[in-house]
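Q: Hand in one record:
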Amino acid sequence: MRRHGPIEYEIFLIGVDETRCEGCRRCADICTTDVFEMRSGLAVPVRPENCLGCKGCVEVCPTQAVSLTEI
C-alpha cells in the first residue's frame, strides 16, 4: 500500500565560531559524512546538508567552537 502525505526530514544548522576554532581538525576527522573542510587553518562546514546530527563534531571540539541546531 502506498502512503500519501508529507515526508519529514531532519535538517541541521552547523556553525563554527571562527574566534574559538583552533584548527585542530577533530571535527573534520570524526565526521563520517564529510561536512567539514579545513580552510585557512579553520574548520568550515561546507556540506551541511550531509549532516546526520550525531553531534560527534560538537563533542570532540576542545574549544566548543562547533554548534549544531536542528531546524
